[in-house]
Inverse folding.
């Protein structure tokens, strides 16, 4: 409300789009993780959303971090108070300089899925603890990764033999069922393959001690995924405790998706001119909604998730005509929503029902905007990135989040 007033008064920042990050939600996701997967340590996939407060909170909760580049490793270590052993360099295809630098920084655990990578590691970081990333079925996921990464099972014997020949320390297996996995049953086959890889490695003289079950966890399917995963681990790794096999995962989306919402301001509107109806009969294609809204974030910004992460977003009215309350009797009409850039690919929503009373200056809200949004946003056409406003959540959780963050800060000071 205040923002709209300030914007009307000429305050330039008042109408900017912004995220609200609920750290309490991240905390709750962690509690959910620990309750369902108590023996699997999460290594948060930094690429999903490298927000500094999310990283701090997860560090304070004892999570590790999955980094894919020098930049991500530095970002995590620069926080302070995080030992490099809490990082897995989970990119199977790394530049020589990145491997060398990881070694310098004390990051030893890293993945590989091809023989060339073994030669590179032997040259640049021979003390590394290597994790073999195997190929698993990713056909049940929004973003398939198998096209690019993962050693087919048929290549595993030759890869471990080559590692042995080079005198390298291979410590375990990882996989990724694909990001945004909508059929958790795939974890079962992936664990079976991991077991096979453990056995192949044992025949080559390795005793693996790390099982990394990757990411892919979807918020609403998490409990089911956890169940499938634990059943398969129980079946194929019944002796994991006696053999000191550590199980870790690399969740990204699961931790942050629901924690961030975006508020965007309607900066322009194209609608039939009401008294004459002149624009109804325009030359625009007849299958297009007749009302078009233009908001101040788009697919070149936060909504890049529509293009890169195959998401469909669902707008709702945050405020209309100075009120947070929109009466249910308010008539709606089919509308489209567009981003601010001059490119026509910049469409946020091609068809949605919105109140006909919406006007320039009103606000739209979008939930589930925490995963693969901010991190890949550009400033194309001179539009700035939307800033983040933080909340600790409500009730008991807020207090616990505050305690965790304060405790972590104290620990940082001492170390
Ligand atoms: C992207 C990625 C993840 C995170 O995946 P989510 O689906 O967001 O959980 C984990 N591990 C690796 C290697 C990745 O590339």
């Amino acid at each position: 409300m205040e923002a709209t007033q300030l914007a009307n008064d000429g305050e330039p920042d008042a109408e900017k789009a912004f995220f609200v990050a609920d750290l309490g939600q991240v905390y709750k996701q962690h509690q959910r993780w620990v309750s369902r997967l108590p023996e699997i340590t999460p290594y948060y996939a930094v690429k999903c959303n490298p927000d500094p407060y999310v990283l701090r909170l997860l560090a304070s909760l004892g999570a590790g971090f999955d980094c894919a580049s020098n930049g991500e490793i530095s970002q995590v270590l620069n926080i302070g108070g995080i030992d490099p052993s809490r990082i897995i360099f989970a990119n199977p295809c790394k530049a020589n300089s990145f491997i060398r630098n990881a070694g310098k920084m004390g990051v030893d655990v890293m993945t590989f899925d091809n023989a060339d990578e073994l030669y590179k590691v032997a040259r640049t970081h021979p003390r590394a603890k290597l994790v073999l990333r195997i190929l698993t079925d990713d056909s049940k996921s929004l973003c398939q990764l198998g096209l690019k990464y993962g050693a087919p099972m048929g290549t595993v014997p030759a890869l471990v033999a080559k590692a042995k020949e080079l005198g390298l320390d291979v410590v375990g297996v990882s996989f990724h069922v694909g990001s945004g996995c909508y059929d958790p049953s795939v974890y079962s086959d992936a664990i079976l393959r991991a077991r096979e890889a453990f056995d192949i490695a044992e025949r080559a003289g390795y005793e693996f001690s790390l099982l990394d079950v990757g990411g892919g966890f979807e918020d609403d399917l998490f409990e089911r995924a956890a169940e499938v995963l634990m059943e398969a681990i129980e079946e194929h790794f019944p002796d994991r405790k006696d053999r000191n096999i550590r199980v870790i995962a690399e969740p990204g989306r699961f931790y942050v998706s629901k924690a961030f919402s975006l508020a965007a301001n309607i900066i322009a509107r194209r609608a039939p001119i009401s008294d004459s109806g002149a624009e109804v009969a325009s030359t625009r294609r007849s299958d297009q909604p007749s009302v078009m809204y233009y908001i101040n974030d788009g697919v070149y910004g936060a909504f890049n998730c529509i293009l890169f992460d195959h998401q469909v977003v669902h707008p709702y009215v945050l405020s209309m005509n100075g009120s947070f309350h929109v009466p249910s009797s308010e008539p709606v009409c089919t509308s489209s929503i567009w981003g601010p850039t001059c490119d026509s690919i910049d469409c946020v929503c091609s068809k949605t029902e919105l109140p006909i009373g919406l006007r320039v200056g009103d606000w739209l809200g979008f939930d589930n905007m925490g995963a693969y949004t901010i991190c890949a946003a550009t400033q194309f056409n001179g539009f700035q990135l939307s800033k983040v406003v933080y909340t600790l959540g409500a009730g008991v959780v807020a207090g616990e989040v505050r305690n965790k963050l304060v405790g972590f800060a104290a620990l940082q000071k001492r170390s």
Remarks:
- Residues 45, 47-48, 66, 90, 176, 179-180, 214-217, 250-254 surround pyridoxal-5'-phosphate (CB under 6 Å).
